[in-house]
Amino acid sequence: MLTKKKARTIRITVKTVILSGVAIITLLPLLWTISTSVSPDTGIETYSLIPEQFTTENYPLAWNYPTLFDSNVTLGTMFLNSLFVAAAVTILSLLFDSMAGFALARKRFLGRNVLFWAALSTLMIPFYVVVIPLYLIVLRMGLINTYTSLIIPFAASGFGVFMFRQAFFGIPLELEEAARIDGAGDVYVYSRIMLPLVKPTIATMMIFKVLWSWNMFFWPLLVIQDYSKMPINLGLTVFRGHHVTRWGLLSAGMIIATIPVIIVFLVMQKWYIQGLTAGAVKG
Amino acid sequence: MTGNKKWRDTLISYIFCAPAYTVFTLFIFVPIIWAFVLSFYDFSILTYLTPDFVGLRNYIRMVNDSYFWEALFNTFHFSAIYVPVSILAGFVFAIMLNERFPGRNFFRLAIFIPVVVSMVVASIVWLMILSPSSAGFANRIVGSFGIDPQGWLTQSNLAMNSIILVMVWKNFGFNMLIYLSGLQSIPDEFYQAAELDGASRFQRIIKITLPLVRPTTFFLLVTTTINAFQIFTPIYLMTGGGPGYSTTTIVNYLYMKGFQEFEMGYASAISVILFGILLLFTLIQKRISKSSDEAIV
To answer: Is a pLDDT exceeding 50 seen at residue A226?
Structure first.
């Protein structure tokens, strides 16, 4: 028994050493960015993980730093752009996905199966495959360089409809019937009875949408050339192109762009993991 | 009366579905059909209202386009290494982090953090780490082993491998997380029985864990491959597809043709081929997961 305990102690020690090494590799790029962001911006490459001189001045400088062509637009503007787009995508798609999911799960109507399969089929269509026609549609609608072009195409997702349908499907009929006897209509049943019962799904979809829309890059790269409308991730690449040696500022900008996703993840990681796992189990 | 209610229900249901399905129709269903149609035309952003019908010429051109084949080869090259390595790493660390011990949650978080960080930020940071200058992080590390500074992203023999490294760093935590949830479903009794039979830890992993997480492995294999075939951002930001065409993948080539050289008809044909490849993977998944379901039942 004692030897078994000893073996375990050795195993855990070895494991901890290996994992510490791996954790250094996975965290190092970020720790180094943080370190650079609080070091004076000398324009010289620095590679120390502990800043020799500590300063916070890069953060306000980066936030207020004007881009080359439009002095009214700063990285701060782009941060707010991202915030607005992420909020709009998240709110709209949670609303639209849950509405469709509600009808598909709780109502009987002609064409329900067709609509359900249609929602599932969108999962098999990769974004890059539709991107050229999508671009032409947005161009034709006169939406190039607008927030709308970053929001509307993603205002609903097959995955969201599917997740909400599954969640609503599991709610016992009695809860709905009691309200119906009292004369409640569909809007009431959907918004007051059903939605509060699927809070876990709402939380899961919320974190997926926020992370996804905050981090999207390819689509903004195509449709946004106007600096005042740029999301921060696209803005960072432009910023880097213009000031390749201003590492302190660039690092501060990257940390500013990363803080929201880290916070959202840390606060909601339970729901995030639940959502991922649900997807994997269904395969 | 009941007939009336039925129609009312149908109408209300369609109203509830209308917003989501308007989005799907306008931004997914119409575009996917249009992508096929456009692949038979020649046009640019300026001439998209009056495209020239060219029949199969875009596809014939693709067959004879050596850069397209190179992009296809690079995508396979990337996937062939990235997919198994990131899945294996995910599996190994899931095994290590399944058992309770002090610091477990910290290590899980540390490994998962790169997944949450945006690909843009990750690419810019790695661009600095892999800087070709002798002061660059990576070069100082190999320098301490007496190796000359390397152009990690500027030498054609290294560039793709550097991209693979960055992508494994970024995403193996995702695979770990999925494996961890798969491991939860294996009953402890299985291991206890094997332990009584004198099976070593390693034997238990090979003989019990590996077969039991096969559905998870299969799920990851398909989804990771599908994602790997759509790699764009890190290559766009770190190498621009170069040096030469040595890191140009299908989507990078599609972007180059469609949005830099404005040969959108040709780019549409490339996207149709990409769709075909990805659809093949999805169908294989459906096929095999169906047959494995039957096997279990």
So the answer is: yes
CB contact under 8 A, B16 and A100: yes
**Count of structural domains within chain A:** 1
Classify residue A172: in a domain, yes or no: yes
Does some domain include residue A255?
A: no
Contact A214 B114 (CB under 8 A): no
> Is residue A198 predicted with pLDDT exceeding 70?
yes
Residue A182 belongs to a domain: yes
For domain B64-296, the CATH superfamily is MetI-like (1.10.3720.10)
Range of the domain at A87: 77-241
- Residue A29 above 60 pLDDT? yes
Partner residue opposite A133 with nearest CB, options B13, B34, B226: B34
Q: What is the CATH number of the domain that holds A235?
A: 1.10.3720.10
- The CA distance from A200 to the nearest CA of chain B, in Å, is 18
What is the DSSP track for chain B?
-HHHHHHHHHHHHHHHHHHHHHHHIIIIIHHHHHHHHHTTEE--TTTTTSPEE-TTHHHHHHHT-HHHHHHHHHHHHHHHHHHHHHHHHHHHHHHHTTS--TTHHHHHHHHHHHHHS-HHHHHHHHHHHT-SSTTSHHHHHHHTTTPPP--TTTSTTTHHHHHHHHHHHHHHHHHHHHHHHHHHTS-HHHHHHHHHTT--HHHHIIIIIHHHTHHHHHHHHHHHHHHHTT--HHHHHHTTT-STTTT--HHHHHHIIIIIS--HHHHHHHHHHHHHHHHHHHHHHHHHHHHHHHHH-
Query: Given an 8 Å threshold on Cβ–Cβ distance, is B230 in contact with A29?
Result: no
Does the residue A32 lie in any domain?
no
Choose the closest CB to B117 out of A30, A155, A190.
Answer: A30
